[in-house]
Amino acid sequence: MLAENPKLKSKVELTPDFVAGAFAEIIRASLVHAVDGEAVLIGRAGRSIHIEDISRTGLAIAQGLAAAGVGHLISHDEQQVQRADLGPTAYPSQLLGRPRIDALRTMLAASPNKAVVSTGKKILEKQLQKIDCAVLIVQQAIEPRRYSHWANRDVPHIAVSFDTEFASISPMIIPGQTACLFCLENMRTDEDSNWPVLASQLIGSQKKFDDAASQLFAAGVVIQKILARIDKVSGFELSEENLSGYRMNLKTGEITEFVWPKHKACGC
Description:
Layout: H1 16-21, H2 23-33, H3 37-44, E1 48-51, H4 56-67, E2 72-75, H5 100-109, E3 116-119, H6 125-128, E4 133-139, H7 144-152, E5 157-162, E6 166-169, H8 181-191, H9 195-203, H10 212-233, E7 245-249, E8 255-258
Parallel strand pairs: 1-2, 1-4, 2-3, 4-5
Antiparallel strand pairs: 5-6, 6-7, 7-8
Helix pairs in contact: 2-3, 4-10
InterPro entries: Ubiquitin-activating_enz
GO molecular function, one term: ubiquitin-like modifier activating enzyme activity
């Protein structure tokens, strides 16, 4: 028998149209948490997720989170929809030239969901500190300043990276508990002293490696990990939360675990 969660009290109601479209989400939540699945989705309606970049992969993540009941999506992405952002797994041609964040609002408004989309620059610092999770999306290498913002705010975050061989999703980084992205950079430097120079070159590259297979694989893993984290915060316990990261080899299709230990030079 499915139990109600005594920790969660909410005035949020799910509309019949949303419930009909989210039936698989409700069933999955029921199976994962052994409680009423609708109660889990109601809990998600009060959660806020920051997605740094809402081009192809960020868009897929935003849509998946909205479909799963997440109520607040935030982004500092101020770019307009470019031709490179169009496609079957991206924005429709009708939204070319619109700000990406407005285009995301338009797409979500066309279907039943609870998601409100906010522009990050209008969010107060104290609100940013209360974000439940942040998503970073990069090509090849990531600038430390991009994840230091979230580490300094003690906000859990997850990084997606695409390169010539792999689509990689970091573990869920929980400041003060897990190894961080600074640890990963230190480890890479230990393995190759030229890594900092190479990374700076890769950061400046305009090449894109988020093909459809990479994009959709990454989005699926990120969505699952974010839902597991926010459901736990809402009081829906898991037998064990899997914090590991994963990467897919785009040549072989092999999926492997992607983890690293805390580094002795890092204070995390």
